[in-house]
Specification:
alpha+beta, 3-stranded antiparallel sheet, 7 strands
């Protein structure tokens, strides 16, 4: 089933942490690399995110590239996916869906809720995330008091930059940027309709993103033999990613999102 990645919870022998290992099963087998890229993108934006690392499992018929992350759930907490919070609301428009979700977060007194959701949307736009469905984000709840503690760390972002379909960023124009049928948004333009100055983003902060395409290409080249990418595919996808960063900077400038006005 292409929807479900092979995954396993394990105990890290060195740290004794409970960790999740995930492989890849879509066309280019790049999901583990993309999890790392999505984490690094979120870190620059100031979006709380699950830290992913890459690991090769070598004691198999062929080396297997996986992503590895620690659990962000403790014995005292649980993850409540947005699908449960928005139950029965799936048919409403995207903007209304986000408004209902934000109202829920604000009523639950989640700190900086609007900023966190806006940065999640921005990250998805930058990375051409076609898999932001309602089970791929949510909140953390205390199991004893049932108090909502915070939004969950950003997680499960492997299907970006054309992973799920052949070169998704070029297959669809920006106006027709389709998420799959479980999806959160229909067009990339809808992401920006919900982004404003409450995102609390500086130009200096944003411009750190320009280091990520080179970082992405280095990861692709490092693990190329564990993927189904051909020579040159990494450079192509890197160029798409760079184009996204440039185009979205102009959009954010037009919206007036940057807190500082100086160019670096």
């Amino acid at each position: 089933n292409w929807r479900t990645l092979d995954k396993a919870w394990m105990m890290d022998e060195k740290t004794k942490d409970r960790v999740l290992l995930k492989s890849a099963n879509t066309m280019f087998l790049t999901e583990p690399i993309h999890e790392v890229l999505a984490y690094e993108c979120a870190s620059i934006l100031g979006l709380p995110a699950t830290k992913y690392e890459n690991q090769i499992i070598s004691d198999l018929k062929r080396p297997l590239l996986v992503s590895k992350c620690k659990t962000f759930i403790t014995p005292d907490t649980e993850l409540i996916p947005a699908a449960q919070i928005l139950l029965g609301k799936e048919g409403v428009g995207f903007e209304e869906l986000v408004k209902v979700y934000l109202d829920f977060l604000e009523e639950a007194l989640v700190s900086n809720a609007k900023e966190k959701i806006q940065k999640q949307l921005l990250s998805d736009a930058l990375l051409d995330n076609t898999d932001r469905h309602l089970n791929n984000f949510g909140v953390i709840r205390n199991v004893s008091t049932l108090q909502i503690m915070d939004v969950a760390l950003n997680y499960d972002c492997g299907r970006i930059l054309g992973t799920a379909f052949p070169y998704t960023p070029k297959r669809y124009t920006k106006e027709e940027f389709h998420i799959d049928e479980l999806g959160y948004a229909v067009t990339q333009k809808q992401f920006f309709s919900l982004i404003d100055k409450n995102i609390h983003l500086s130009r200096r902060q944003y411009q750190k993103l320009y280091s990520l395409p080179e970082r992405y290409l280095s990861l692709v080249n490092k693990y190329l033999s564990c993927t189904s990418l051909r020579e040159g595919d990494g450079a192509y996808l890197t160029a798409v990613f760079m184009q996204n960063i440039q185009e979205i900077e102009a959009v954010l400038e037009e919206i007036g999102c940057f807190q500082d006005t100086s160019f670096q």
